[in-house]
Design brief:
Layout: H1 2-21, E1 26-29, E2 37-46, E3 51-57, E4 62-69, E5 74-80, E6 88-89, H2 90-93, E7 96-100, E8 105-113, H3 115-119, E9 123-133, H4 136-139
Parallel strand pairs: 1-3
Antiparallel strand pairs: 2-9, 3-8, 4-7, 4-9, 5-6, 5-8
Length: about 140
């Protein structure tokens, strides 16, 4: 019984040290000249580093994300602010997202390496294109 308690305490003491090793995400605020537009970023990530591209959008706007990584272990997620789960999970669905956004607010496109590559401190170069457009199908409807 004492061994289990000692092991649990050792684990709890080591958790902050593990969390402290993860680098803070590199955050880029995305702005468009109007409420719609296209931007492209060329960057690289290494190990447990993540990049976050934050943009503000209106409900019904179409977000398109094209992701071109140099590594098959690099992916992206699309996350709505305050949401517990991703709108899009690249490790399951691939390197392209296009869809209407459910609500007004801030959205984050998060680029990351899978754990197996992050543990090896691998590096992945990537290009990500973020296109925000109005939903043309809704704008043609009569009031």
């Amino acid at each position: 019984m004492k061994i289990h308690i000692a092991a649990a305490l050792a684990l709890l003491v080591s958790l902050p040290a593990i969390a402290a090793d993860a680098p803070a995400p590199r955050v880029q605020q995305v702005t468009y000249k109007s409420s719609v537009g296209s931007v492209q970023f060329k960057q690289s990530i290494k190990g447990y580093q993540t990049d976050e591209y934050k943009l503000n959008a209106k409900a019904g706007q179409i977000l398109t994300v094209d992701f071109k990584p140099s590594s098959t272990s690099a992916y992206f997620n699309v996350i709505a602010k305050g949401s517990d789960e991703a709108l899009f999970n690249g490790s399951i669905k691939g390197n392209h997202f296009a869809g209407p956004l459910p609500a007004d607010g801030e959205y984050t496109v998060q680029v990351y390496l899978m754990r197996n590559a992050a543990r090896r401190d691998a590096v992945a170069k990537y290009t990500v294109t973020l296109i925000l457009a109005d939903d043309k199908t809704n704008s043609n409807k009569a009031p």
